[in-house]
Amino acid sequence: MSRLPDGRYVDDAPFDPKANIQTLERRDLDAPNWVLVWRKFKQHKLGLVSGVFLLVCYLMLPFVGFIAPYTANERDSEYLYAPPQSINLFHEGEFIGPFVYPTLAEADLETFQWKFVTDETRPMPLEFFCEGGSYRLAGLIPSDTHLFCAPDGATVFLWGSDRLGRDVFSRILYGAQLSLTVGLIGISVSFFLGIGFGSIAGYFGGKIDWVINRVIEILRSLPELPLWLALSAAVPSNWGPVAVFFIISIILGILDWPGLARAVRAKFLSLREEEYVRAAEMMGASSGRVIRKHLLPNFMSHLIASATLSIPAMILGETALSFLGLGLRAPAVSWGVMLNDAQNLASIEIYPWTAIPMLPIIVIVLAFNFLGDGLRDSLDPYAD
Amino acid sequence: MSILRYAVYRFGTMLLTLLVVSALIFVIINLPPGDYLSNQIAELRASGQSAGVAKAEFLRTEYALDRPLWQQYLIWIGFLPGPQGFSGLIQGDFGWSFEFDRPVAEIVGESLWLTVLVNLAAVLFVYLVALPLGVLAAARSKTWVDYTSAFVGYLGLATPNFLLALIMFYYGHKYFDLPIGGLMDPIYEGQPMTWEKVKSILIHLIVPTFVIGTSGAAAMMQRLRANMLDELGKPYVETAIAKGMSPSRMLTKYPLRMAFNPFVADIGNLLPSMVSGSVLVSVVLGLQTIGPTLLTALKTQDQFLAGFVLMFVALLTLVGTMISDLLLVLLDPRIRYEGRET
Lengths: 384, 342
What we know:
By secondary structure, chain A is α+β, with helices and mostly antiparallel strands. Chain A is built from 14 helices and nine strands.
């Protein structure tokens, strides 16, 4: 900036007649679409935090055997319904690292319950990278090293133990493996069906459209849970846990697709009239290619956002089914199966920690909701 | 006059839908291999009780379970004469429950009305809660009112219904002395309706209504808030404020009416999830609705009972959706009566 003798201020930079054309109207729109979306998503703090949290949760799944101090079905018959224990650092004002106080079970002959007495005089330090029950890392590599476990003669039930003396904390970690993936498989099924039927209906129109539309309307007007119940009641009881798990996730997905299909169909109806679609058709592209290469990419991101929002429904659905005893079955561990124990008022009152699996459910469902909201808000970077 | 025509048209489509749904339900409940009686016969044979076998065989022919599936379906609906002539759903014969060894109609009996009652109460609850809260959250957006209601709403959406039921039950009983379990005091069960019985039912309804309604109310509230916010940004609102209209009057006179449409139309989405929720919650809380009956019927493969309950649940949602469609037309004269021409 320099000052002319007559008192005006003039910019020193050389004059560029094309400046108006070259500079972008908005500096923030100078990058590919996904960068713009990412920039906007980063501002949605709650969504970002939820996304990172979910990512950590899913990445943890293959290693739950290592993190959990016990294995899923390891029983300690001395400690039925043991209350949660805390890990302490200081004993009588002295720092001695993480340790637990041993508990002793005593039978109370008046109430016929086990009473647990904590012996606060003997701190027992936790062991790290110790040997425990064997498990398979990521389902493949056999191992028996655990991140931490209880010293001999003590237990470490962070969130208590259940009616068979199994560690609730470890079971929640193992349960996450099924409870979290059930939503992913379900949503893949629903995605596949929804996009398939939705695009066929929207692209071809006519009679097919009419039929698919009626099917969508009928399925949407039916209550999901009774149908889920009926379908899962049809799963043969002699199937193994893995087969049951897959079929349950597929059942969850089968009833979820109509909402997605409707959105896809509506988009297709408007997009198929665009010129680039006609151009592609005239150049001899097959219907399948037009749908996959030219139409779907237009709103894939929106579909992903709406899928994120419907994963929670599936997780809750699995929980409900297992809770009612029609979903996953006993040797399999999922949060719903665990909550089956907390089914009656008595256990809520006497052993409230058996209901702890509801906390991860609530947290995960909330996280998916926030992530979905964040994604939805940031998918249109050109909006204000 | 044309509202009447629309009503007839809507009713017709509902009946057709119901027909398709009945086929769907019939297929689903027949998915498991075998049926209640053939399983029973196999079991009896295995244990060598031939007397029971004869009875079960007799029942099998009596209820046409030995015929091909498509005939069974038509007999069940009442389009084909069964062994006793036409006696299907449309003739008002709901079939026989093998598990309870009684007619289906007798088993479900009173619980049908209680199911309708519970769902009605839950829908009312959703509207009564979501309407004021949604409007308030929009009018006072980005204040603590908005944030609190959003937080509670999110929690409502995220908490599994059945857990909420257990917790509410426990604390409701502990602090407010609300009754535990059931829909009425056991002494009124099977009694004719009296004022005392109605009172007992109403008190017992508090917790289930709250539990079933919460997630619906949360979703409804969020949608109403979004709609209201859209409307509040429009120029006519500014004009109204500039002209000195009082905020509450302005709010109720214009934007609320506009935002109300989706509110009514939404019942089509709301109702299926509410009915789902009520089935689940009934099982947990032991309400005398058809939820627990459905669960036992499905687990024991008691096909007529399961089929009837599923049909009833579907009918409930379809009728609810139809009513909401008709209401919508009454509320908003801009909506066309005819079906969409595409």
